[in-house]
């Protein structure tokens, strides 16, 4: 029964109008019980497809009612309508206001009086204009708030933190970039919100050891703590490491931490699973080893842009048997260090060496030969590696799912054939700026699970390679053809036909791409982002096709497409109601087109540089209309 | 050990403690006895009378020694005696019109002690009869034990008698600067018991107040250690003899208890000549220089050295306030470590907080140093807890919050920072007072202006209590070593005019404290 109804739902998704007709004629859905409909709604919610939910509620009055009854989370576009929306959705527990840049105290008070204690989560990370008094409405009326995101509230002060401290049930709190909140405010939060499990204090640069120390002392349930960019020292770390259930600790760019201080720490945190100390230049291997001593559960270690990875440093870390993932981006890596990593007792799943200097064939081979379980490898900008590395890598790490090797310019084109042959499970491949050619692409097309392929600036790639991709990689969702000058409509068309799940495509500066390509791409119903900058052959006709077909389009870049004019904008205004971001610079769009675009409700970001046809009055009217 | 036993033991412990102090006090005196030999001879000749009058003949062998101090006193004719009494015997202020009741009190106390000693001797006699093969050493020890106790008795007797002789006290003028250090006198008594030289050191005590270290060591090695040992032994015996129980007091320390008046007395050192009181021995020595060139010798100015190498029984102090946890009768008695601790504890806990901060008019203190410490920060407390407590430092606030459940940091009010413009002088003073300990010493040296009235009141009813001033010598207390005493001495030494200066400065505070103590 449920599956049937799900099928029905899918139909509706595909053909909205049909479903509407069905319901109005026979109302076969009226017989469904409430439980079943709720189950349908649950499964719909999993797809994060707002459109299908919308069509569901439009099916019938009862569906409309049931959907509003069932909906738990809401991401409103405009805060002005919030009171009415909240009247309709009476069981909202999660409110995401990231699309509402203006949320003032009045809005917050009306939200809190409508949602009362049902509200569990509120996201104000992109909103402004509210103050601590508005927060206090929310906190006092919605006493069961579990989650508050106040990131980017740069005007909030300690008084706001004191208000938050009243939310006794709070478990997750983001205060990213709350620059005015100091130790005192954090102290209030520490004392008030004893149930905190997640706390992010990133960029709260007024918070020091004292506040963090108090947090660690009072909030014993903390699981996740982000202290990036804080001026903290080892003084507060000792109490943090005493937390019994801390799993996730982020210490990006905590420049106050150094080896001497860390060495005074007697013990590590046993429960720690993920540790990020990237950009802490003064933490060497000695500090790190004393800092992580006893952290036997460690799974993820991020040491990016930190100390150099030498043999000694690598040996310090060799005892984490559960370590799965290590990121050494931007570090100086020596050959001995890489050999030592190869000898770790842990079997690594993910290794990131992007932008590392000192990565050589010898070193990389010694790692990949022993770490056969490797699934994700990032060797972006390792310019000294060659065919040898890729050869040994592909032979030993056959279960590789992600390989990023942008700008590995010394790797010859034969290597990419090997990748296709030996890594059948590859899902993500970034070969931007490489020597890959059609042969390589043909070989890679055998990776049937490939969903992301980036071949930007690969001048050797032509339609032939792309056709083979389009033939066999039906899972492809993201394709980057940036400046692949050899690509024409043929290649794009074959991809558009063979990869219906395509969501993101970049054909920037592929000057041979014309409207035909766009017409073919309009078959990819899920297309969300189209970047066609610098394709002078594209016109409003192609845009019309895209607008008609790809209703989910949210991001469009048609900069420097001179042939696109107001009619293209009108078609967008008609069909692409989900459009959020558009770049129209250097197009032939005038006031009319802009006014048409203004009717797109979700549009948030519009770049209109050098629109010669645009007058100030036109811009003003467009802005007023939006 | 039950309570009763213990108290009995303590009563014994006190005299013995005084006895134990004797060698210590004595040490300074040992220095250059050679120079005084002649004098010593004289003394011995002169007046045994006093002593004989006072004490029954049971201990003839001690006659000489007992004489000695008396002689010394009469000969030297310093205010020494007077001062001593003012410190040690109760009601020293009533010299002029002596109180027979006090005298009776003292006498009966002495009687008790003599009886106890008598018992002890009896016991020794009995044991001797039983155990023939006693080594000589033990015998001498016993002898020493008795000696020490006798000494203390004699000293008390003398001081009691002294109060009857106003003429004596006026004529007495002594070079002995260290007043209140009965030990000096008492200590003198020992040597005769051990060796002939013993008599000599006493003389030194009279002649030059400050000891020369090198000389002293030699002597202390000879007799001091032995005496000390004897004292301890004696004490242990006391316990045995005095009560049924065999046990020592729990812990290996002895408990001393000062009386309230003593604790509150601002001065413990008095000038023999003019009677001026000082809180610190060093200040007294500085003061003494004004009385003549003989006080300006390096020897006279040097710190009376205590030989700490001798094994000593730990001293701990009890608060006289009944029911206080620091009182020895309390179930969970926790002794105080030093006299300084006693003083501060007693003032803080059992006295009115009479010093009010002049800035905030809310905070009150009973120890002047606490007030000074507070005034240093008063008005600067900008870190506020929800409980109303203010802190001058953020980390202290956070420590406080970490400690207590439910306390939150309170948001600072928007009001501007209080304008606190302390006078330079106050700042200077405060900067000197590094910590409480030092504060105390500083305030001890202060209050010179008020000194005289204090000893008057310092009278104590309980004669046993007179030991305590003996024991109180800052140099002695281990805690004091850390305090910047040298700097103080230095400054005092290099600038003689500093003393009056100190007086002026202290009149604000020390004077206040003095009057307060006298209430």
Describe the structure.
The complex is a heterodimer of chains A (626) and B (519). Chain A is α/β, with parallel strands linked by helices and 626 residues long. Chain A is built from 27 helices and 22 strands. In chain B, helix 1 crosses helix 9 (182-194). Helix content of chain B is 57%, strand content 5%. Chain B is built from 23 helices and nine strands. By secondary structure, chain B is mostly helical. Chains A and B meet through helix 9, helix 10 and helix 11 of A and helix 17 and strand 9 of B.
Secondary structure layout:
The complex is a heterodimer of chains A (626) and B (519).
Chain A: H1 2-14, H2 16-25, H3 34-46, H4 50-57, H5 61-70, E1 73-74, H6 82-88, E2 94-96, H7 105-115, E3 121-123, H8 132-141, E4 147-149, H9 158-164, E5 172-174, H10 183-192, E6 198-200, H11 209-218, E7 224-226, H12 234-240, E8 248-250, H13 259-263, E9 274-276, H14 285-291, E10 300-302, H15 311-316, E11 325-327, H16 335-342, E12 350-352, H17 361-370, E13 376-378, H18 387-396, E14 402-404, H19 414-422, E15 428-430, H20 438-444, E16 452-454, H21 463-472, E17 478-480, H22 489-498, E18 504-506, H23 515-521, E19 529-531, H24 540-549, E20 555-557, H25 566-575, E21 581-583, H26 591-597, E22 605-607, H27 616-625
Parallel strand pairs in A: 1-2, 2-3, 3-4, 4-5, 5-6, 6-7, 7-8, 8-9, 9-10, 10-11, 11-12, 12-13, 13-14, 14-15, 15-16, 16-17, 17-18, 18-19, 19-20, 20-21, 21-22
Helix pairs in contact in A: 1-2, 1-3, 1-4, 3-5, 6-7, 7-8, 8-9, 9-10, 10-11, 11-12, 16-17, 17-18, 18-19, 19-20, 20-21, 21-22, 22-23, 23-24, 24-25, 25-26, 26-27
Chain B: H1 3-29, H2 37-45, H3 49-54, H4 63-76, H5 80-88, H6 100-130, H7 136-164, H8 166-171, H9 182-194, H10 199-207, H11 213-242, E1 253-257, H12 260-264, E2 269-270, E3 277-278, H13 281-288, H14 298-301, E4 314-318, H15 339-350, E5 355-356, E6 364-365, H16 368-377, E7 383-385, E8 390-391, H17 394-403, E9 409-410, H18 424-432, H19 436-445, H20 451-457, H21 467-471, H22 485-494, H23 498-518
């Amino acid at each position: 029964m449920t599956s049937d109804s799900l099928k029905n739902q899918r139909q509706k998704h595909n053909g909205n109008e049909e479903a509407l007709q069905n319901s109005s004629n026979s109302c076969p859905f009226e017989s469904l019980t409430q439980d079943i409909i709720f189950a349908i709604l649950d499964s719909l919610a999993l797809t994060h497809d707002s459109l299908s939910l919308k069509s569901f509620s439009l099916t019938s009055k009862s569906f409309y009612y049931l959907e509003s009854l069932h909906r738990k989370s809401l991401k409103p576009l405009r805060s002005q309508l919030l009171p009415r929306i909240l009247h309709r959705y009476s069981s909202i527990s999660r409110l995401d206001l990231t699309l509402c840049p203006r949320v003032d105290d009045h809005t917050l008070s009306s939200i809190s009086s409508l949602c009362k204690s049902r509200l569990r989560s509120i996201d104000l990370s992109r909103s402004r204009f509210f103050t601590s008094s508005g927060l206090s409405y929310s906190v006092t009326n919605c006493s069961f708030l579990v989650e508050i995101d106040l990131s980017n509230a740069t005007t909030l002060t300690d008084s706001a933190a004191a208000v938050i401290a009243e939310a006794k049930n709070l478990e997750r709190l983001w205060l990213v970039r709350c620059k005015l909140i100091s130790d005192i405010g954090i102290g209030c939060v520490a004392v008030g919100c004893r149930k905190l499990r997640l706390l992010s204090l990133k960029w709260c640069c007024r918070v020091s050891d004292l506040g963090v120390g108090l947090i660690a002392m009072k909030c014993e349930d903390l699981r996740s703590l982000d202290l990036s960019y804080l001026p903290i020292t080892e003084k507060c770390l000792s109490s943090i490491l005493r937390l019994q259930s801390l799993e996730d600790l982020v210490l990006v760019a905590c420049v106050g931490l150094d080896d001497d201080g860390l060495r005074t720490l007697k013990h590590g945190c046993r429960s720690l699973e993920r540790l990020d100390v990237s950009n802490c230049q003064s933490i060497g291997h000695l500090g790190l080893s004393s800092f992580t001593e006893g952290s036997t559960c460690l799974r993820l270690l991020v040491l990016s842009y930190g100390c150099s990875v030498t043999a000694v440093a690598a040996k310090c870390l060799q005892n984490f048997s559960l370590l799965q993932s290590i990121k050494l981006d931007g570090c100086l890596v020596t050959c001995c260090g890489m050999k030592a990593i190869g000898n770790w007792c842990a079997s690594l799943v993910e290794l990131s060496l992007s932008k590392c200097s000192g990565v050589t064939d010898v070193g990389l081979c010694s790692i990949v030969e022993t770490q056969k379980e490797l699934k994700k490898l990032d060797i972006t900008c390792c310019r000294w590696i060659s065919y040898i590395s890729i050869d040994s890598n592909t032979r030993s790490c056959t279960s590789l799912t992600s390989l990023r090797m942008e700008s590995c310019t010394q790797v010859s084109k034969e290597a990419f054939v090997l990748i296709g042959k030996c890594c059948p499970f590859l899902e993500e491949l970034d070969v931007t700026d490489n020597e890959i050619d059609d042969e390589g692409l043909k070989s890679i097309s055998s990776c049937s699970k490939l969903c992301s392929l980036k071949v930007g600036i690969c001048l050797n790639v032509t339609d032939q390679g792309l056709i083979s991709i389009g033939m066999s990689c039906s899972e492809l969702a993201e394709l980057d053809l940036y400046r692949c000058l050899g690509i024409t409509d043929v290649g794009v068309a074959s991809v558009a036909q063979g990869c219906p799940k395509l969501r993101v495509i970049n054909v920037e500066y592929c000057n041979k791409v014309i409207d035909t390509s766009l017409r073919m791409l309009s078959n990819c119903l899920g297309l969300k982002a189209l970047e066609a900058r610098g394709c002078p052959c594209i016109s409003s006709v192609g845009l019309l096709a895209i607008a008609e077909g790809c209703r989910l389009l949210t991001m469009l870049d048609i900069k420097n497409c001179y042939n696109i004019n107001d009619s293209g904008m009108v078609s967008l205004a008609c069909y692409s109601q989900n459009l959020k971001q558009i770049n129209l610079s250097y197009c032939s769009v005038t006031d009319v087109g802009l006014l048409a675009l203004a009717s797109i409700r979700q549009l948030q970001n519009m770049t209109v540089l050098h629109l010669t046809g645009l007058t100030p009055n036109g811009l003003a009217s467009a802005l007023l209309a939006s | 050990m039950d309570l009763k036993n213990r108290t009995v033991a303590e009563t014994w412990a006190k005299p013995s403690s005084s006895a134990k102090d004797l060698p210590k006090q004595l040490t300074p005196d040992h220095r250059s006895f050679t120079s005084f030999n002649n004098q010593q001879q004289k003394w011995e000749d002169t007046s045994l009378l006093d002593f004989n009058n006072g004490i029954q003949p049971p201990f003839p062998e001690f006659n000489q020694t007992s004489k000695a101090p008396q002689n010394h006193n009469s000969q030297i004719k310093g205010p020494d005696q007077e001062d001593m009494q003012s410190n040690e015997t109760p009601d020293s202020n009533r010299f002029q019109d002596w109180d027979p009741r006090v005298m009776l009190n003292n006498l009966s106390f002495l009687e008790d002690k003599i009886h106890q000693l008598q018992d002890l001797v009896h016991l020794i006699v009995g044991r001797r009869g039983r155990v023939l093969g006693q080594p000589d050493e033990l015998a001498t020890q016993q002898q020493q034990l008795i000696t020490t106790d006798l000494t203390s008795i004699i000293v008390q007797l003398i001081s009691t008698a002294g109060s009857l002789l106003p003429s004596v006290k006026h004529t007495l003028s002594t070079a002995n600067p260290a007043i209140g250090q009965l030990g000096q006198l008492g200590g003198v008594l020992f040597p005769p018991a051990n060796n002939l030289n013993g008599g000599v050191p006493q003389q030194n005590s009279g002649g030059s107040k400050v000891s020369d270290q090198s000389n002293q060591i030699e002597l202390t090695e000879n007799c001091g250690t032995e005496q000390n040992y004897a004292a301890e032994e004696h004490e242990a015996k006391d316990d045995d003899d005095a009560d049924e129980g065999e046990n020592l007091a729990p812990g290996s320390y002895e408990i001393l208890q000062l009386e309230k008046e003593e604790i509150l007395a601002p001065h413990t050192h008095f000038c023999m000549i003019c009677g001026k009181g000082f809180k610190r021995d060093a200040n007294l020595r500085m003061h003494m220089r004004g009385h003549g060139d003989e006080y300006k010798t390096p020897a006279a100015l040097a710190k009376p050295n205590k030989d700490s190498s001798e094994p000593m029984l730990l001293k701990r102090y009890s608060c006289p306030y009944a029911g206080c946890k620091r009182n020895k009768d309390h179930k969970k008695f926790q002794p105080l470590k030093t006299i300084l601790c006693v003083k501060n504890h007693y003032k803080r806990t059992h006295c009115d907080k009479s010093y009010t901060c002049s800035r905030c008019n809310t905070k009150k203190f009973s120890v002047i140093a606490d007030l000074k410490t507070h005034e240093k920060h008063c008005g600067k407390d900008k870190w506020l807890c929800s409980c109303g407590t203010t802190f001058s430092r953020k980390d202290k606030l956070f420590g406080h919050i970490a400690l207590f459940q439910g306390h939150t940091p309170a948001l600072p009010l928007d009001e501007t920072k209080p304008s606190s413009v302390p006078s330079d002088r106050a700042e200077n003073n405060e900067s000197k007072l590094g910590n409480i300990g030092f504060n105390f010493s500083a305030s001890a040296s202060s209050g010179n202006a008020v000194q005289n009235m204090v000893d008057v009141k310092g009278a104590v009813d309980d004669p046993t209590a007179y030991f305590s001033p003996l024991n109180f010598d800052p140099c002695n207390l281990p805690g004091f070593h850390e305090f910047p005493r040298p700097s103080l001495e230095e400054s005092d030494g290099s600038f003689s005019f500093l003393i009056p200066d100190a007086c002026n400065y202290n009149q604000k505070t020390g004077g206040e404290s003095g009057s307060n103590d006298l209430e």
